Amino acid sequence: MIKTSQTGHSLPKPSHLPPSMFFQACSLRRIPHTLCQIRRYSEPAATVKKPAQSAPKSSCPADTVLTGLNYLKGQEPVLAKPDEEYPDWLWTLLEPRVIPDDGPGGRAERYKRRLENKQKIRERNFMLTQ
Fold first, then answer.
1. What subcellular locations does the record give (predicted)?
2. Best exposed site among 7, 31, 59, 118 by fewest CB in 10 Å?
3. d(Cα 128, Cα 79) in Å, to the nearest integer?
4. 21: in domain
């Protein structure tokens, strides 16, 4: 048995109890305990040069018939154009939107909070259907 100096309560040795039970017993008797954390930092990664990114290629070659795009009656079939004929901004549409972090209460924080709220609403509505 270990006699504590602050409260006078006695506890069995920590080696006889599983760690979770010992900490639980300490917290029940309000004996202050400390946890030690050891931080180990990884070694810095070697710098890797990324290859220069060229303009992404479209998923279909030029002059391919794009089905479903000619929705008007009597319209000619729509053909894919070469990549050079499309505007440059078209190839950046699939990249994720980057909002600069402008501090607490800023636009980025509001954007993230609204996305989280929308996701919570979706999850709540899904659970109501179950």
1. Mitochondrion
2. 59
3. 45
4. yes
Q: Which residues 6+ apart lie within 8 Å of 112 measured at CB?
A: none
CB 86 within 8 A of CB 74: no
Residue 89 domain-assigned (yes or no): yes
For residue 101, count other CB atoms closer than 10 A to its CB: 11
* Rg of the Cα atoms in the chain: 31
Structural domain boundaries, residue 107 = 83-129
How many angstroms from the chain centroid is the CA of residue 62? Answer: 37
Strand, helix or coil at 104?
coil
* Residue linked to tokens 């179950």: 130
* CA gap 32, 26 in Å, rounded: 7
Predicted confidence (pLDDT) per residue in 24-78, tens digit:
555 555 555 566 666 677 777 677 666 556 656 778 999 999 999 999 999 999 9
